[in-house]
Amino acid sequence: MSGPLRVLPLGGLGEIGKNMLVVEYEGRIVVVDTGLRFPTAEQMGVDLVLPDFTYLKRRAADIEAIVVTHGHEDHVGALPWVLRELGETTVPVVYGGQLTVAMARSKLDEHKLREANLEDLATETVKQHGPFGIELVHLTHSIPDMRGVAISTDLGTVLVTGDYKFDQTPVHGPPADVARLAELGRDGVLLLCGDSTNADRPGTAVSESVVGPELERVFARCRGRIVVTSFASNIHRVQQVMDAAAAHGRKVALLGRSMRKNVNIARSLEHVKVPQGLLVQPREIDQFPDDKVVIISTGSQGEPLSALRRMAYNDHHQVELREGDTIVFSATPIPGNERAVNETVDRLFHIGCEVITARDAPVHASGHGYQEEMKLMLNLTKPRYVMPVHGDHKRIRLHGQLAQAVGVPADRVLRAQNGTPVEIDGRGARLGAPEHHGLVFVDGVDIGDPSDVALRDRRMLSADGILIIVATISEEDGSSVVAPEVMARGVPFIDREDPFFEDVREAVEDALDRAADQKITEIDVIEGIIHDDVAAFIYDRRKRRPMVLPVVVEV
Ligand SMILES: [Zn+2]
Ligand SMILES: [Zn+2]
After folding, report:
1. Whether pLDDT at 177 is above 90
2. For residue 31, how far is its CA from the centre of ligand 2 (angstroms)?
3. Lowest mean pLDDT: which of 86-100, 166-180, 491-505?
4. What global pTM score does this model have?
5. Which residue in the list 138, 271, 368, 399 is annotated as catalytic?
6. Which residue in 33, 47, 52, 195 is the catalytic one?
7. How many CB atoms lie within 10 A of CB 37?
8. Cβ within 8 Å of residue 8, ≥6 positions away
9. Which of 18, 166, 304, 507 would staple 37 via disulfide (CB 3.0–4.6 Å)?
């Protein structure tokens, strides 16, 4: 007798971001999505936040496939780290839609991971892997090639929606495959894991197609340069901005590495069509009159290193914003990013720019369905059990209430959390014992971006504080003349009463003795020795890395 079907979320519940769902049956595993999250303001200097996937590392040999629903960072962003840790060829296959696979491949390529087996899996095709049948279902979202994932087993089918809205007039490609969803519902969906992002919004999300004409109206009244900021992955939006620009005889410059990269990928797959001669290089924009230029830029979330943020702080090497420029925020802040966005907006006002956000005009459409669409998904698929995912605690609860509103009994709505699996067998469904889960931080330095020493410093400071060491040595022989002073600021793991403080002071004395023995008199060399010895000492004893700043004074 095989054990229960388990669905274990390692991320994405109680938060918006780093989605990762582990579906297990008969000792085998399918992973749906390997997402990341961007750090909050408190996680200073951390570049990325990944789900802790230690569980997968332990079970690497049991993995049949990874399926990525779409190309957004909160679904595909952690893939390079997952494959590197699990072993690129240990995972038999990574499935996704065409654009998703192309974006994943480009991402893996940047990490020099070229062995992984990525496969563009067509819809209406069931791939058998161990006890699972895997099928992708076409849905609409703010990026092309969004796919829900139906995983069938002999116990029943798990349907993971991924991010979706029911856009009846998508900018490109067909609407969601409601027929297939209804068929799955008729054949019986055991568990629906549904997107909860907009569970707090009544009604239906507006179609992406509404945004284009609105952008045109905005463009029509602007006399100066226009900067539109959006998610780099929002390919349809980029298309609509380019179309609006072309309609008003404006040239378009793409700003931000991810923006250029995604447009190139999407262009090669013909997901965007760029009119001949429309694109210009950012450095060329000064050759055109102000009313003939549109810049499409990253930075809609106020990200510290993004092009828009840099422009707002007059720190961009190619574009200097000035009075008369109009900045259109064609995105809304993801919960948690509001402060950074507000700061950016205020800097833009300071410069004298006009700022238009989704609150001023419908220049943005959410990629996630509202309440009525979530009800439609529930009614089409008629799941026996519902597990709301992709949302903070509030939205997960609201999604559960929507399920009950359309007739799912309360005891079949399973409010799981990261690390807590849903277990289903012939007798019913329940929450299982928690598994190891958590966060992993990624520091950009590790992945080939050595320019940002400042970030690393800030991270060290935010995590472990700073130790300032003042040593006074004799000019003649370098010996320590008074006891070295150790000052700690923001060091959470030692306080003044701690005897460890005295040990640190002794480590400084030892370092000074070592320097004196070696007849070293250059101050910066002595400071280097103190730094290295004390840092090693603290790491050895406490496994922490505060910043160590030695100051040596000669008397
Ligand atoms: Zn998402
Ligand atoms: Zn998404």
Report:
1. yes
2. 17
3. 491-505
4. 0.80
5. 368
6. 195
7. 24
8. 21, 22, 24, 55, 419, 420, 421, 422, 435
9. 18
